Amino acid sequence: MNAIEIRGLQKSYRVYQKKEGLWASLTGLFQREYNEVEAVRGIDLDVAQGEFVAFLGPNGAGKTTTLKLLSGVISPSGGEAHVLGHVPWKRENEYRRRFALVMGQKNQLWWDLPAQESFQLHQKIYRIDPEQFRRTRDELVDLLEVRHLLGQPVRELSLGERMKMELTAALLHSPEVLFLDEPTIGLDVVAQHNVQKFLKHYQAERKITILLTSHYMKDVVALCRRVVIIAQGEIKYDGSLAGIVDRFSGHKVLTLQFADGRMPGDLARYGDVLEIVEPKARLRVARSSIADVLSSVLANNTIEDVSVEDPPLEEVIAKMFAHTANEKKSEAVLPVETS
Amino acid sequence: MSHHPSYLGVFLTFARNSLIRDMTFRANFIIESISSVSWMIMNLGFYTLVYRKTTNIVDWDKYEFFVFIATTMIVNSLVQTFFMPNAQELSELVRTGGLDFALLKPIDTQFLVSLRRVNWSSLGNFVVAILLLAYALPRIDGWTLSIWHVLLYPLYIVLGVLILYSVMITLAATSIWLGRNQSLYDFWFYLTNFSRYPMEIYEGAWGTPLRQVFTFVIPILVVINVPARLLAKPLSSEFAWLGAFAFVATVLCLAVSRWVFKQALWSYRSASS
């Protein structure tokens, strides 16, 4: 059964085009130029109950906008979406008590109060049974190892500790769908790892549906089997992580270790030379010719060690983002309206 | 999990959390209480001086007028305690995108943003005002406490607070459209300034239209005048219609403010993350 169903979802904003300088600002008071920014341009997506899906994309690709649409914070310009059978932007209480949104860059806990007071408030707002509330809270703070910080004002917590409290607050009402918008942003490696570990465990245990956006490939590798890539408001890829490399990279990385200083001078004929650190060399070779290259190298040289790998995921994705960004530039943004 | 949020429970938690927060910043709390109380006492001193030169202002003698001032203090302190900090914060919530979180909660959004903070230090004036009433009322010629005073005065105070709340949340909701509304507080001050005097003051070529606008269009003259008159003046049939009108005005104000708020929410698009 699908927890999330999206059909042709669109969202465009009208943005005031501010010109440089005082005179332009003054004339801008009377005559404004607006640009229509299409943040989401017709997305179709199905997410099954219990799936953990990553949204990847460059900044401004429409990931956060999509999550906000699905949480009902904003309304779409077109298209449909159903989450757990509800239309999110109707903002029905029945829907709102079944999901949660966590944003790494914003906090909802009372800044000057200990987190436990904000948790109390959530108990009242979601009307969680006191006994169940206590159990859930204790379980969450123990898993996240922040029980000893419950009584400390939120403003005195570190970023990582605060994020763990935010996660606890969001999960107190046991949501069935969770939207995570860059939950590990700005966290150090240890805190990042803790949050990943927690999310993995929690999702496996509760079988809830999670949509995650993140710029840290480590999050994605650790957590999600399915990846959706969004760029310019459109879905560019939907599939497995490994599939990204197959689809967007036609190359393999070949690492050769030559026997005692017998590295040939004309390595470039086998492929693009990425790096030479004697006695090792790394080459980028087109996937289709990898077998030929390998046999030719082995026939003509004394090789001590060899490995053939996929290029790093980050690199493939970065290249793909750069590619779509170029496409975007060539497509001029038209001023649509003056008033 | 029950399906309806407990509004009272949520409100009490807001009140409790605000108190905990206020107590964390004790010095600030005390200074705020003292400054608002002393501002009111200076105000009172000013009118005492005025009443040395005259025996009445538009038919309100000194002690009757003290009741009027006390009523103003009660209504304003209630508005400042429960609604003012929230209306001011709404603009900030919109600008920073914090409104997102309010929209996620399974509870009425207007309730949530209107009552999330309680500014306890503003209740200092409430206490002073009650003392002032206790001082002034027995000194009014021929005044006796009736059952109507006890029943209707608190009721009209509540109506007055609700009217002011409606005006305030309507003004604050415009910040959802404008992105930022710094002038909210100024505009609020100009408006409520009119409500601080007996409505008989507004007479003549300029005064009468002004009175009509602030009675029927933005009914802020009703806010203080109705409860103060009820308590300080003998009940007269002449003002019975005003008493009835206060009910209608309150309901209309709440309805309009709710409508404006909903419209504003609908067009909310949330700040970039």
Question: Average pLDDT of chain B, to the nearest integer?
Answer: 88
CATH fold type of the largest domain in chain A: Rossmann fold
Q: C-alpha Rg of chain B, in Å?
A: 20 Å
Helix percent of chain A reads 25-40%
Helical content of chain B (DSSP H or I, runs of 4+) = over 70%
Give the arrangement of secondary structure elements.
The complex is a heterodimer of chains A (339) and B (273).
Chain A (H helix, E strand, L loop, with lengths): L1 E15 L5 H9 L2 E16 L3 E5 L6 H9 L6 E6 L9 H4 L2 E5 L11 H11 L4 H14 L15 H13 L5 E5 L7 H18 L2 E5 L3 H7 L2 E6 L2 E7 H8 L2 E8 L13 E6 L2 E7 L3 H11 L2 E7 L3 H18 L4 E4 L1
Parallel strand pairs in A: 3-7, 3-8, 5-6, 6-7
Antiparallel strand pairs in A: 1-2, 1-4, 2-14, 8-9, 10-12, 10-13, 11-12
Helix pairs in contact in A: 5-6, 9-11
Chain B lengths: L6 H18 L1 H28 L2 E2 L2 E2 H21 L1 H13 L2 H6 L4 H7 L8 H13 L10 H32 L5 H12 L8 H14 L2 H13 L7 H28 L6
Antiparallel strand pairs in B: 1-2
Top keywords for this entry?
heterodimer; A: 339 residues; alpha/beta; Rossmann fold; Alpha-Beta Plaits; 2 domains; six-stranded mixed sheet; 11 helices; 14 strands; disordered C terminus; B: 273 residues; mainly alpha; two-stranded antiparallel ribbon; 12 helices; 75% helix; globular
